[in-house]
């Protein structure tokens, strides 16, 4: 078997903590090629990132260090030499960290994307991932037999019940005042995605700047309604948020930036349980809406699971909230999806049980009940370790 790791937008952290584990494990059973670029905008790798794999001399490295290497992050299909290299490798499987679907859509063999696997409120390691055919298909799962659904329900119910107990919402608390929101009128949540220049996946957003998104949504917000915005934690650490703050200030109290979770603050998960609706693009915060049963509108070119009941437009969502008949994700379907996602999809790259066979199974068999028991057990094992620590 020949496997290609195609990594134009991998960050050094992702390479060290996720991709290197996958390379090491798959190199034991396959011929492995790696296409990667030098560092630029914190994507690509530096020589020191290769050191942890120097004991694997059989790896075939293709360092795309030409002067025009920045372009392969977004328009690799315009590089005939690069596409010829991919064709020459002729991989059976390509594992990608790439935001360029035009290029990867032309690759031979099975093409999969390694993406973040987090789904709040499931807690776990920050480097849990999924291997999937698309970038941001959210809430999608195959039709399950009644026996499979019953197994998942039985295995996941204790975890679901603990999540319910741990993340209960006090809806009588004076949360509006605490967050600086008006004391009346519907509240719409808007969780922001990562806005740093290293995030090439941002090309699938509606607006290049979130200040423009906020102004756009505010023009459609009915009178007396408020917009509660939660920022991505990495934006707080690494991004200049001055334009975001200015856009919110310009709205004169119709929008607030919710203080980060902590003393006096609130995270997206809690806000989703209190607001009247939530607006999403490709944020993983869809899981918060799913867990809370919050009515939502997702603006995305990627697939959204039908059970999430995403409205087809902002106007449709706002209209349903105004009438009092807004419908959120079905609770039983949400429980089934969370159980399926945990049991079937989540991969811990560094876990001793995550060997080459497991990885190839995730690639070639997107749904495999034979791995569900191990998926549930790994999560329970991790939770026990956290308690002990």
What topology emerges from the helices and strands here?
Blueprint: E1 2-7, H1 12-26, E2 31-36, E3 60-63, H2 80-89, E4 93-96, H3 101-104, E5 110-116, E6 129-132, H4 146-166, H5 175-179, E7 187-191, H6 210-220, E8 226-230, H7 233-238, H8 242-250, E9 255-257, H9 268-272, E10 277-280, H10 286-292, E11 296-298, H11 314-323, H12 331-345, H13 356-364, H14 372-388
Parallel strand pairs: 1-2, 1-4, 2-3, 4-5, 7-8, 7-10, 8-9, 10-11
Antiparallel strand pairs: 5-6
Walk me through what this model shows:
The protein is an alpha/beta fold. It folds into 2 domains: 2-142 and 346-388, Rossmann fold, CATH 3.40.50; 152-335, Rossmann fold (3-Layer(aba) Sandwich), CATH 3.40.50. 37% of the residues lie in helices and 13% in strands. It has 14 helices and 11 strands. It has helices spanning 12-26, 80-89, 101-104, 146-166, 175-179, 210-220, 233-238, 242-250, 268-272, 286-292, 314-323, 331-345, 356-364, 372-388, and strands at residues 2-7, 31-36, 60-63, 93-96, 110-116, 129-132, 187-191, 226-230, 255-257, 277-280, 296-298. The strands form 2 sheets. A 6-stranded mixed sheet has the order 3-2-1-4-5-6, covered by helices on one side. Strands 9-8-7-10-11 form a 5-stranded parallel sheet. Helix 4 (146-166) crosses helix 12 and helix 12 (331-345) crosses helix 14 (372-388). The chain is globular and about 65 Å long. It starts with a strand and ends with a helix.
């Amino acid at each position: 078997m020949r496997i290609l790791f195609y990594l134009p937008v991998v960050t050094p952290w992702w390479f060290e903590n996720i991709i290197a584990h996958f390379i090491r494990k798959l190199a034991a059973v396959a011929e492995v090629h790696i296409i990667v670029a030098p560092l630029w905008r914190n994507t690509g790798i530096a020589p020191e990132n290769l050191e942890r794999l120097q004991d694997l001399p059989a790896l075939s490295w293709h360092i795309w260090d030409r002067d025009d290497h920045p372009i392969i992050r977004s328009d690799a299909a315009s590089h005939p030499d690069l596409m010829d290299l991919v064709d020459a490798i002729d991989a059976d499987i390509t594992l990608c960290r790439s935001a360029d679907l035009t290029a990867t859509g032309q690759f031979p063999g099975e093409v999969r994307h390694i993406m973040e696997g987090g789904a709040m409120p499931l807690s776990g390691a920050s480097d849990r991932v999924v291997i999937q055919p698309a970038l941001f298909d959210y809430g999608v799962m195959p039709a399950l037999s009644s026996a499979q659904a019953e197994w998942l329900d039985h295995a996941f119910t204790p975890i679901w019940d603990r999540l319910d107990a741990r993340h209960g919402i006090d809806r009588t608390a004076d949360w509006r005042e605490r967050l600086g929101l008006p004391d009346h009128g519907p509240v719409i949540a808007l969780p922001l995605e990562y806005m740093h220049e290293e995030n090439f996946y941002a090309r699938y957003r509606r607006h290049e700047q979130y200040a423009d998104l906020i102004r756009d949504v505010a023009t459609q917000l009915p009178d007396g309604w408020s917009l509660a915005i939660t920022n991505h934690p990495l934006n707080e650490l690494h991004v200049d948020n001055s334009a975001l703050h200015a856009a919110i200030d310009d709205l004169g109290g119709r929008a607030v930036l919710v203080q980060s979770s902590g003393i006096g603050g609130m995270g997206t998960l809690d806000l989703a349980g209190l607001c009247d609706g939530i607006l999403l693009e490709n944020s993983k915060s869809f899981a918060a809406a799913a867990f809370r049963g919050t009515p939502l509108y997702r603006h995305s070119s990627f697939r959204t699971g039908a059970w999430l009941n995403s409205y087809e437009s902002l106007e449709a969502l706002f209209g349903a909230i105004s009438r009092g008949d807004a419908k959120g994700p079905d609770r039983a379907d949400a429980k089934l999806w969370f159980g399926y996602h945990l049991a079937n999809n989540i991969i811990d790259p560094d876990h001793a049980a995550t060997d080459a066979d497991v990885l190839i199974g995730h690639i070639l068999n997107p749904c495999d009940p034979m791995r569900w028991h191990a998926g549930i057990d790994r999560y329970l094992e991790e939770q026990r370790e956290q308690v002990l620590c």
